[in-house]
Design a protein that fits this description.
There is one protein chain. This protein folds into three domains: 44 residues, no CATH class; 108 residues, Immunoglobulin-like (Sandwich), CATH 2.60.40.10; 200 residues, 3-Layer(aba) Sandwich (Rossmann fold), CATH 3.40.50. The longest helix has 26 residues. The protein is α/β, with parallel strands linked by helices and 431 residues long. A six-stranded mixed beta sheet has the order 18-17-14-19-20-21, sandwiched between helices. A five-stranded antiparallel beta sheet has the order 1-10-9-5-6. Strands 2-4-7 form a three-stranded antiparallel beta sheet, with no helix packed on it. Helix content is 35%, strand content 28%.
Length: 431
């Protein structure tokens, strides 16, 4: 049995004045006994919460930054109406703002309540117990029972850079020959013949076709399709750093999704590897519309691990997955202490076999700190920030000397910058 605030107020109104006026313990005990009997009667008249049945429905998946709605259907199988409060409890990271609902359910009737999820973390989110408190007619007391009603919502990583996809696809269509633009470069494929126009590269003239025709003919080329693209996410300690509104890993995932969607539309084969000291996620052989869902599911449970990256193991995992030439994108941090003793020594050999790009999510607060001069503390902060920026620039130069492309941008810019670099390399025939 549960009691409400009304019962406490009634006890205060009845017992305290009598105790002050009559000053008789027997009278007080008699009133308390009457109150207990009244509460017991009110609870007995309440509808039974044990006679309720529950069923859930709604969304099974969502992304961070998006909503999911899970409905809870409640049916009263008992002979009395159930009036009271229902609490549908979820973990705080599920982001359910309203968990308590007023309940007024007649016999053989069904009512539905909705939980609107705005999750703040990736992974699987499950509800806790559904607790129903049924009150009696006088709303002094009631009965309370908790029920387990299972459900699961898979929270996938966010994809805010999706808005950049249409413009990059338009550029891709130009490279793919769907407009009049044709390019020539190392590793491109022959597309067709057309008449020479001023400005064409004379190296593209097809002399045999020219001899057969009445005009100078040139070959047009289109970027090669069916290239291999391997996206590698570093999930070690540097990926846990806060940048913008999330972590470096969150921004790296977003960049991986945009690049994966773009490369898949271009006809390239895209694989994904998440690694720190072991493989945390591995997506191979996905094609077309199946790629992004598989990438999202694989990365939904991945969180940064506070260890140093096993660079030798990472390079071994890359070599095991791509034995022929591929475009390898490593999303990690341009942190000198981590790269110098870790991945940097392996980059020249890796770049000799593949086209390699290192994409790093930059902490834009460093630039703000470097420009601050308000007081002595701000000057010291600015000096530290300038040193960090200088170390990062020197590390960028060392990485580029290894034959590796470097993309260093803030959390909002890393995804479109990486997509643009992919298109540039594809146009140049370097993939």
């Amino acid at each position: 049995m549960v009691v409400t605030g009304r019962a406490a107020l009634l006890a205060l109104l009845l017992t305290v004045p009598v105790a002050l006026v009559a000053r008789s313990l027997a009278v007080v005990l008699l009133l308390d006994l009457a109150l207990v009997l009244l509460l017991a009667l009110d609870a007995a008249l309440a509808g039974s919460p044990r006679r309720l049945s529950f069923a859930r429905g709604g969304d099974r998946t969502t992304r961070i930054g998006e909503e999911a709605v899970v409905t809870l259907a409640v049916r009263n199988d008992g002979p009395r109406p159930v009036r009271g409060v229902l609490r549908d409890a979820w973990a705080p990271t599920a982001g359910v703002a309203v968990t308590r609902h007023a309940l007024a359910l007649a016999p053989e009737r069904v009512v539905r309540v909705a939980a609107v999820l705005r999750p703040t973390r990736r992974g699987e989110r499950r509800p806790d117990l559904v607790t129903v408190r049924s009150l009696g007619p006088m709303r002094l007391a009631g009965r309370q029972v908790s029920h387990a009603v299972p459900w699961a919502v898979q929270v996938l990583p966010g994809f805010p850079s999706r808005k950049h996809l249409p413009s990059r696809l338009a550029r891709l269509r130009e490279l793919d020959g769907r407009t009049a633009l044709m390019v020539r470069g190392q590793g491109t494929e022959f597309d067709s013949l057309r008449e020479y126009v001023i400005g064409d590269d004379v190296r593209s003239i097809d002399w045999r076709a020219t001899a057969r025709a009445s005009d100078v003919m040139v070959r047009t080329w289109r970027p090669e399709r069916d290239r291999r693209v391997l996206i590698v996410l570093d999930t070690a300690r540097t990926s846990a750093a806060r940048v913008g509104d999330g972590t470096r890993l969150d921004a790296s995932m977003d960049a991986a999704f945009l690049l994966g969607a773009l490369a898949s539309k271009a006809g390239d084969r895209v694989d994904l590897l998440a690694f720190d000291r072991a493989v945390r996620a591995d997506v191979r052989g996905a094609t077309g519309g199946d790629l992004l869902p598989r990438m999202s599911r694989a990365l939904s449970e991945v969180e940064p691990l506070l260890v140093e990256t096993d660079a030798h193991g990472l390079v071994s995992a890359i070599n095991a997955r791509v034995r022929q030439h591929a475009f390898v994108v490593i999303l990690t941090a341009l942190e000198p202490s981590a790269l110098r003793e870790g991945l940097l020594p392996f980059l020249p050999a890796l770049a000799a076999r593949h086209t390699v790009a290192l994409a790093s999510v930059r902490d834009e607060r460093l630039e703000a700190l470097a420009s601050s001069r308000g007081d002595a503390a701000a000057v010291y902060d600015a000096a530290s920030a300038e040193k960090a920026i200088g170390d990062r620039d020197r590390m960028t130069e060392l990485v580029m000397r290894s034959g590796v492309e470097v993309i260093d941008a803030g959390p909002d810019d890393i995804a479109p910058r990486l997509a643009d670099r992919y298109l540039t390399l594809k146009a140049a025939g370097r993939l």
